[in-house]
Amino acid sequence: MNKRFSITKLMLVLTFLFTLLVTVGCKQNPALSFEKDTIETEVGEIFKLAPQVTNLSGEDLVEYTFDQEGIVSLEKTNTFRALKEGTVKITATLKDHKDIFFTITVKVSERKADEIDLSGLTRVAVGKTTQLNAQILPSSTANKEVKWSSEKEEIATVDENGLVTGVKVGETTIKCESVGNPSVNKTIIITVFAEVTEIKVTGEKEMKVGEEQTLTTEVLPENAENKAISFASSDAEIATVSKAGVVKALKAGTVTITVKAKDAGEASTTFEIKVSDNAPKPERIEVKYEKDMTVGDSQKLGITVTPEGASQEVTFESSDAEIATIDEKGEITAIAEGTVRITVKSKELDTVLTTIEITITEYVEKIESLFISADGTYYAGSSYDVDYIVEPETATAFIFKTSDEKIATIDEFGRFKCLTSGKVKLSIESTDGTNLKEEVEIQIIDRVNEIKVTGKNRMEVKTEQALYVELLPRTSQAYPLYESSDENILTVTSQGRVTAVNIGTAKIIVKSSDGSEVTKEFEIEVTEPLVDAKYALVDPKVASMEKASKYEYAGIEFIVGYTAFSTLEEAFKVATERVYIASGTYEETITISKSGLTIYGPNAGINPNKQSRGEEAVIKGQITIAAGTSNVVINGLAFTEGSKVRVEQSTDNIELSYNNIYDTNDGGAWVEGRTQVEAVFDLWSPLNDGTESSNLKVINNRFNNIKKTGVLFARNNNVTVTGNEFINFTNDAIRAEGGYNYGTWLFDGNTFKNDQLQAMNGIYFQSVSGILEGAYQQIVITNNKFENIGTEGAESSYNCAISIRTYQEKGLGINILYNTFKNCVNYMNLRNNGANAETFEAHINYNKFVGVPSGVYHRNCRPGSGDSEASNPFLANMDNNYFEDLEGNPIVDLTPYKDKFVDLASYKDNYATKAEYEAKLKEVLNIAFSIVVNSEWAGLEKDAVVEALGFHWIIGTNAFATISDAIGTLDSATTIKVLPGTYEDELNITINGIILLGNNEGVNARDYQRDTESVINAAIKVAAEGSGFTLDGFELQGSGQVLLTGSCENVTVQYNVANGTKGDGLIRVEGTDSVPVNTKFIGNYSAKYTAARVIHMVRGLGLEAIDNYFNAAPSTYDFLNSSGGYIGGKVIIKDNTFISSVQSFLYVNQIKSIDALIEGNIVENVGQTIVDFRTMTEENGTAKFVIQNNTFKNSGCEWCPIRIRTAGYTDGCSIEITVNDNKFIESGTKDDATGGYYFIENPSFSSQKDPFKTIYEVGKNYYEMNGKTITELTNDNFSGAAKSFEAPYASIDEMPEYKKGE
Question: pTM, whole model, 2 decimals?
């Protein structure tokens, strides 16, 4: 390497490094500065900042921030706009050197005016105005207020708005100055000038045709700026006028010359000129006219001015314009009677004149007809106009009069003034001699001067009440008008019905419809409901409803949140008597610990085995009846899956009825020994210390597809199981555990049926009887059906229709009677270990066995257990039964099957035929009917065999398709059973003792759900020979009614339902001589009765109407009616409910001697009267009426609730009436004279001395009107007809309890 080269290279490198070091070491930091650190500007101004940046190159190097927003804005680079008044600090920062910044303080003040622009007219007349307008610039100026001034106010003034008013001629300067910036102003010169205000014209006022003249004018004021004028002629044919005012006359006549100023003013004047020709002067005026006129007439005068050629222009004048007027054309109008002079003057020469005289008389037009009307409402103190017509319309000869000027006066125009209340006649009469007159009578009433309001001053929220309002005086015919002071608390209808909407206090304001200024305020406090929670409701719908709102269910009104709930728990907490459960699904587990509680599902009383049901209340949880709780009913629910009802000890009088049990959960394998197995109805009383549950009832339930035990009993005393169906069950339909069971156990009318062989037992008694000495158990199993029960090959021998596993040795009687057994593995295993003839008896009699069992008909000893006749004595007898195979063939010889009749005392005397068996069964069961009618048998041949009601019948012998066919075969008293169907054949009852039993015999529809009806749609005519006839358990439709056509005795119509009947009376007497005796009408029902009367007993001796229910249509008249005849004898009207009718509850026109008990009835919404008995028709007749314990509601207000008349009572007659313990609720008649109410009357007494005037002995009753209890009575409340009366009950709670049927 060359050493020299290396040194040179090294020196170059060192030089470069030195240069770099010097360059880097000498480089300076950048800097930022501005010319000013404070800037002042105005709103709207744009200003720029000029940043000075050193030691840094480039563009847009600075960024800005503000310490507060909204005062200035950055418009573009370094350019800003002032937005509003205030001070802001702008911080400028180098973008890449945040530590280098500069702060500028900007003070923004409001924008001031720079300039004023003025506009407007600069000239104004004296006394006129002109408007100047000022515009402040720029438009963003904050304060745009200006100040105006005039330099010479004696010339012109200016107000604060720039309005200039001219004062006098001259010039002045008007100045407009900015208030916000006084240095800015603008001036304008205003010139004030004078306008023409007046023009004077002089000249000749008369000219001859062809003449000319120049009018002389003077224009004022003298200093008017523009004195130019114009001329105009009103008729250029008479005279013309030039611009210079030269008038040229052209023809005779009068012309008006108008002179007008040409400036902006409105000054003008006129000058009249009369132009005449060269005709002769007037000398005389002749007038043609009628000198006599009548008022209203008119005539035109005929005018002639002489000599010929003279001017015919004249003037007219009347001496008395009130008598006659005349116009400028000479037309005279007659105004009034009198004499008037008319003066006629020549216009050309007023000294030429003439005067005529005209006499005017009044014209009287004859009146042809008159009419007057006044049909409004007229109040004392007011004035009104009558309506009247006069023909012809132009006639005026009539006057108005009143019959009594103390009541009303009337003026000549037909306006009458009402002075006081009363009746008065208004008349219109002619005065033209025609003597016409018409009149009308009007009633003048007083305006209301006082308002009384009666009602409850406290209401529960969501309730209603009707206010009772009196408008005084009572002669007023006004009606009340209502309004609420606060509709958020109270609302009121036009009828005065008040609804409590929310809690609080408000007023109902009452006014009168007649415009009276009198008002009455009635204050009402609305409170929380005072709940009587006897009944409670569970319904899922309630969850979304407003608390305290009303909710109706099953005809009962509930209150949401108080008696209506969405959960079972809430309802069971408050209810004391009933809980209604609406359809829905309920999974709660609850405990019932209140005695006397009834639970009603939506299908309460509807038998699931016979009738279709509506939506169910489905229980999926558990209901426990707590220890010591008694008298509980569960009715009409559905149970499924894991649901159950269980009891604890000492739960007495429990009823489970009309429930639908289906599709339960699996209850596990069947257990033979004592076990509390899973059951739907678990009636196992836990203890055995004498606290057994007593009187348990399982009635009319349906168990379908039950995989656990249906009903489990244990340690119970008295059990009833009736009318249930157990379909397709898995283990035991019914199981009885314990060994501590006592009393009577009844199993009647149940069905135990599987579609195929399955399950273990229909009824399994794991243990019977008990350990208590003398506590005997009686088991009765009757009228049941057992089919397809048992499991082939089951390990247990307790695999039967009926099984008993263990006997407790303290006494048992078992009766198995009237049952049907079909196709079971075993029929019975009745083990009686340890029994003897004194403690055990078993009777298996009058049963029907269909199909030979694979097991046994009967067994006592348990196979393989060591049981023997010694341990298990053969005490049961199986006599008097009927056996057949599955094909229906009788088994007469039982010898081949003796190994199936095991451990029996006997099995003899069995029936060889089905007919023999059924005949015996009818006998032992005491079947009342011997004939059956079924409409479905129509068309069957005679002697055909049919089956019904568990028996076989023969068509034409004891079975028929129509009732009339059945009756047609009779010759003596017979009972006929009529199955469901419709029967439309008329029935004639002419044989004593016929009894017709429908499908619902003995079932009162007001208390119980009925099965399918036997319907009669035809008349049933009962002749005198048909005494003893009974109609029981039917539905009557259309023409269906009982007609008593003769004097029959002891006819009974009971437990029937009326549905759309058309006859006048469900039972009616026909024939003028028919007098039925001892007629009974009991337990009948109609939810909507539409016929005129229920009982139309035209005549009769002895009547019982008991326990009927009729909710009638508005067209129905009476419950009992005897118009046109009489009733006598023993009459009992008791425990009926009658709702809605036009007339009455009991209307009896005539009576014979009578002993009547009217007791326990409920009567609602009956119009005219309730009890109305009238004329006595028997000499020396006696009448006794006991009216007690009835409830009358909203009834009898039109006539009187109770009105027993004494018409027809003569010496020798007697009457005795007691009225006590009744409720009169809104059932009284208002006495207009006293303002009070009366409840009882005797309309027939003739004088105060009449011995039959005071006939009532009135005990204690309850009276309530307009929601208010009446606590004080006088004899006026009984129309003076009371012999005596007691003070009323102060409340319903004081009244003694009445029990129906006692």
Answer: 0.59
